[in-house]
Structure formats: structure tokens, C-alpha cells
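Fold description:
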Amino acid sequence: MKKDTVLELKKPEVVTEDPLTEICRKGAREMLTRALEDEVERFLEQFDQVRDSSGKRMVTRNGYLPERTIQTGIGDITVKAPRVADRRKSGAKVRFTSSILPPYLRRTKSIEDLLPWLYLKGVSTGDFSEALAALLGKDAPGLSASTISRLKEAWSEELKEWQQRSLKGKEYVYFWVDGVHFGARMEDAAQCMLVIIGATKHGDKELLTVVDGYRESEQSWLEALNDLKRRGLVIPPKLAVGDGALGFWKALPQVFGDTRRQRCWMHKTGNVLDKLPKHIQARAKDNLHQIWMAETKEKAEKAFDHFVDSYEAKYPKASECLAKDRDVLLTFYDFPAEHWIHLRTTNPIESTFATVRLRTAKTRGMLTRDTMLTMVFKLSMSAQKRWRRLNRPERLGELIQGIKFVDGIKQEEAA
């Protein structure tokens, strides 16, 4: 596994203008001007028939607003927004507001996104001034460490709103759950983040909840699941995928009694191998692979028996570790084969929080509960944009309808 690269920032050199950047900036300014002119013309066309008794248009151009500077990724661009006048004496008057250039815009969305990206990807607050100067120029206005402090406050409010959002009418077919621990020092060493990702009936993965818990306890998971139900999630998922944390599996039937269970093969494989000598782990891993990669449940059962029989005598702890979860390790065979790749592990959570762990590991000092929650939330929401959609999402609708699957095949297709 490759080590994560730590972003190192050197002190920026004096930024000098170059002809190519100036050409790009000039072209961007001209394109923006044309776009604004086209936008105002389309707006005026809507009121072409609004005229006075002499036939003169009542909604017309009225020069430009004062020139202002917009900060972009290629430097500052000066622009004048068109202005419109409604000369009607009575009635409601129209007002032109550009969707391209909102009234108080001072920097482009890409620059707005740059600020949290830098912070969340590892640039400390103290290094911000140098980082921004290297990227945007030494005279970049309004971008300082204090900007991040304000952003963090805004993110905290955003998290609170997200945690209280309504889930009424929502339906999630699958859950992936995990308790995530971080390398950063916390106020309470036993604290972890309880994470649930859900698969919608359309095949999209959504971050459902991120809350802090105590050692992944039953009570912590019970509170997290009940909160989902309180906010309107009354339809239980068909399947929940998670590791061996007993807290979640004890809490699940108390809230969603009809939800079936699937143990994560990645976690189980690691747990079994830890109980075997290193010199036989490679062969044992291949034997485990033969179980969860079997085409049918019957073949998986035979491979399961073979593993238990092979290791039970000399390595009873490894054999017992696998055998005790036999039923919940093979549940995925009762779901569409196209979804097996998604259901055999908690990879949607593991892959996402590898990035989160990287950022929090760089954090100096002790993190408060709110700071950690906010950081995890923002990084997760950023990662969600790149989450892979489920294969053959139409199969989810069939599960909702109650159609049964045997060895991954819809029963009527098997017939």
C-alpha cells in the first residue's frame, strides 16, 4: 500500500505576469462580457410587447453597473454588468438580476471551493496565506487564515441543518455501516464516528448519518438508528452490511426488525488471518477467497466446509472465527448477482474514510467533538460526489416489489 503524500508548501516566490496568462484573462473577460450581453438581451425579449402609446419599449437597457473585479482561477477580471430600466409608471416593475454574475459575487465558485479543499486536504490554517499567494498571486484580496475560521463556523451550521433534515418518504434498499476511528487525538479516547451510507432505490449512494459514538456501543448505534426513524425513515432497508461490531447488530433488530444482515468479508478475512501463522496466511486467504467468490451458495457452503475442516484441528480459533458467522457471511447470495460486488464488503465507507483519516492524522493538537464531526462531514460530502452507482439499479426496484433472488438470479429468470 502506498503511503499517503503529505502536501508541503514552499514559500512562494514573487509572482510575475506572463503573456499567456494575460491572453487567457483577456479572453475570459471578453467571453464573460458576451455572455452577459446575451443574457440581458434574452431577458429584454420577454418584454418586447410592453410598450407605451407611441410604441416605445418600456423595459430597456440602461447602461451598466459600476465596474467590479471578480477573482478567478486565472487572476482578477474586471467586468461591468448590464443594467435594465423598467419605465412603466404603475404596476409591478421587473428587475434584471444576472444568473451568471450575481450582485455581490466577488470570487468564482471554483475559488470558493478552493478554500475548504485546501483546509480539508491538509493545509493548516497557519499556512493559508502562503498557499493562497502561491496559487492566486501575492495580492489576492480577502483570502486569509481568518477566512477559514469563518468557513468552519459556517460548516458547523451546515452540519447541524444536515443532521436535522427530513427523511420522510425516503427509502434505502441497502445500508453500509461502520464505526470509524481516527489517528487524531480526541477529547475522549474511546470516541469514534458512527457512519451509515444508504443505497437509494435508484442506485445512488448517500451519506445518511455521521454521529459520534462511544466504542461503537449498542446504545450509541440505537440512538443513531432511532434518529433516522424519528426524522421519517420508516421503511427498513433490505440488507445491512457491516463488520463484527456487536453494538450495531444488537441495535438493528430493535429499530429495523426485518432488515437482513451481511458481514463484511474484508473485515472477516483480516480477523481470521490474524489467528493464523504468517507462513500459511497466503494459502488461507486464497481458501477464503474461494468461499465468497463461489458462483452459488451451494458451492460457497462446500468451500466453507473445506476451510473449517482444513484448519479446525491445528488452528481452532481461526476456524471458529469464521464458522460462528456462517449464515450472515453468505446472505448476499439471496440478492441480485450484479450487486454482490457492492454487498460483500463495507468498501464504500472504507475507501471514503481513508481520505478522512489522512486529513485528521495531520491535525496538530487535540480535536474537539464538534471539530472532528464537522471535518468528517465535509470530507464525506465531498467524496460522495464521486461514489460509484450500483450496477443494474433496476434490480433494486425488483427487491422493493418483493421479488426473490436465488444465487443472485431472479426466480422467474432462473425458471
